[in-house]
Amino acid sequence: MRQEQRLAAILGKLADAGSVTVTGLAEDLGTSVASIRRDLQSLEEQKLLKRTHGGAVAVEVIYELPLRYRLGRREEKRQIAEAAAQLVTESVHSVGLNGGTTTTELARLLASTRSLKVVTNALNIASDLCPRPTIDLVVTGGGVRPESYELVGPIADRALAGISLDLVFLGVDGIDARGGITTHDEVEAHTDYCLLCTADRVVVLADGSKVGKRAFSRIADIGAVHVVITDASAPEEELEKLRGAGVEVVVA
Fold first, then answer.
1. Structural domain harbouring 221
2. pTM score > 0.85 for this model?
């Protein structure tokens, strides 16, 4: 198991239990105690946990996990991405993608389809799509947000001004019928808003853990969203509220 996979697994166990032990992690992950200690030190330096004698505990403040550690719900995200790809019909000639694990899965699916113009502010998505001969790629520019590999801020916002797209797919950190769509960072939220304003149709991709939740910064009111694609773990009462607000809900 690579270190990046171990770090993601450690954070997952910490989220579930609130604390972990070095020996328990070494046994569960099939690695040495010394490697686990180095992993815990690395995560503490990133303020993602607090080490204790013989283990670690969750930090009191909930931090946004960097994209490279967000490995959970892989199957659900793949299913959501597959459902989203079905919306890219022959009549769709241009799409926009912001950053995130689910939009990254979608980008990989679109890379093997017909000719398509793709606008993105995500460096990792741009890297995946750049060598694909069927993709006409446009990258916004902007300041780099390391947590999500996204280009955000005034340069990105200006690049999006005047662009018209058929579909925009947005990954979000929360979607709520009253609170709208939200994310952790206010600068990212404004760039996401500029991206959705380019679209004839806005599709939100959100696994069930994000439905009915709100993050710090609002991207837009729920009225800006045409479709939300989620998975079967999403709370049904929250989905009904979204439907009541006029949003089409797709459960992948």
1. 74-251
2. no
| Cα(33)–Cα(22) distance, integer angstroms | 6
Quick one: CA torsion of 9, 15, 16, 20, rounded to 10 degrees? 70
Nearest partner of 114 among 130, 84, 134, judged by Cα: 134
**Residues 155 and 32 occupy one common structural domain:** no
| Cα separation, 53 vs 65, whole angstroms | 24
If asked whether residues 10 and 109 sit together in one domain, one would say: no
Match 């972990």 to its residue by tokens: 20
Alpha carbon 62 to chain centroid, angstroms: 17
pLDDT 10s digits, 90-148:
999 999 999 988 999 999 999 887 899 999 999 999 999 999 999 999 999 999 998 78
Both tokens of residue 85?
């790809």
Q: Give one DSSP letter per residue of 48-86, joined into a string.
A: S-EEETTEEE--SSPPPPPGGG--TTHHHHHHHHHHHHT
Q: Could you say which of 31, 46, 69 is where a domain stops? A: 69
Q: Kindly state whether residues 164 and 127 are assigned to the same domain.
A: yes
Rounded to the nearest 10 degrees, the angle between the axes of helix 22-29 and helix 3-17 is: 120
* Burial annotation 33-52 (CB, 10 A radius, 16+ → b, else e): eebbeebbeebeeeebbeee
Q: Please indicate, yes or no, whether residues 124 and 36 belong to a single structural domain of this protein.
A: no
Same domain, 102 and 225: yes
Q: How far apart are CA 178 and CA 175, in angstroms?
A: 9
